[in-house]
Amino acid sequence: KSGIITLDPGYKNTGSCESAITYLDGEQGILRYRGYTIEELAEKADFLEVAYLLIFGELPTKSQLEKFHDDIRDQAVVDEEMKKILDSFPKSAHPMGVLSSLTSALIAFNPSSVNVSSDEDMYRAIVKLMAKFPVLVAWTLRKKSGLPLDYGDDTLGYVENIAKMMFKKPNKEYKKNDIVINALDKLLILHADHEQNCSTSTVRIVGSSHAGLFASISAGISALWGPLHGGANQAVIEMLEGIKADGGDTKKYMAKAKDKDDPFRLMGFGHRVYKNFDPRARIIKKAADEVLGDLGVVDPVLDIAKGLEKEALEDQYFVDRKLYPNVDFYSGIIYRALGIPTEMFTVMFALGRLPGWIAQWREMRLRNEPIGRPRQVYIGETQRPFADIEKR
Ligand code: SDX
Fold this sequence. Notes:
Layout: E1 22-25, E2 30-33, E3 36-37, H1 38-44, H2 47-56, H3 62-73, H4 81-87, H5 95-109, H6 119-144, H7 158-167, H8 179-190, H9 198-207, H10 213-225, H11 232-245, H12 250-258, H13 279-295, H14 300-313, H15 316-320, H16 328-337, H17 345-366
Antiparallel strand pairs: 1-2, 2-3
The protein binds s-citryldethia Coenzyme A.
């Protein structure tokens, strides 16, 4: 019952892995994708560039990026039958459940994406998913809002086209350096990968059985949905709204968060790895001020969030447990300012994490890693004889 197991020599311990994609230092609050700091990438790169970097290991040249984007554009059509599957969901369906189902349903219309062994086959499956997943995200949002579906415009940039499919405003509004595009680019980059978190580990272990890329990503979406993981960005806004409705009494909620008998936790706070500021939270907090200022949006929950953060950083309970704001604490405030419904926040997290999941799946397959099979510490009954029902 020590919690420590000794594996037979040579057992392929698949509980953890080697990876060359993302580096985290939880004590120092460092995050790097393929050696580049998240601060530089969020400031200087765009999301498709970062997706290429994560998946293929190097920042693309101009021609490599153009070819990648062209190959994606060639695959952007989603089978009309998929709309019938989307329409079969009740309006009340949570968008994460819809997205996970639609991603799995894509397999039926793209059977060649399943049995991939060569890097070429993997590339074809990857560009199909990079092309069709944003369409599914946009369709899920528009279905939730009761709006007509849009196929986008392949003359636009990758993120510009996503914005057009989601918000459907005239093309003229979606160009480089537009406030909305810059905010989306930055948020998607900040969510793109994060080492072996719950949903990425899910993608790797499902992929290790060779179930295929789309099935692995569908499983990752389900793992991300949980409020302890990606679902926290929705839970943060619901928490802040609750505090606002309750008169903005942050001290009352700080006390609840520390009360062992109270299930309430400060959503958007704490992290398994970061025992310092989540570097993404610093960038998103700054971006929230900029985006809301640029858009002329005044959101009272931003002030409540800042008040909570200040109190928590000065509170001994939080200081002792090294609890800091994480990526989910401020992101919802920006999504809200962009007009994205609260229930869609975790879908936006999945959209950002897609290239990271793809990169981790590709790395695992190219390294021919064995099927994932973690072991356990058995704490159950020792052997005992069967008892007939009359004697139980
Ligand atoms: C993401 O792994 C990743 O990289 C994930 C992610 C990514 O990019 O993929 O970064 C994205 O999922 C961010 C996390 C989003 N989740 C939340 O914001 C939910 C709220 N946070 C907590 O549920 C919690 O902090 C976790 C789940 C994030 C981490 O949980 P751990 O590592 O299992 O820590 P723990 O629950 O053991 O907490 C240690 C102590 C406990 O107190 P003690 O029993 O030691 O007295 O800290 C307390 C906890 O009660 N604690 C909190 C708290 N988080 C931890 N107390 C109040 N509020 C909180 N938010």
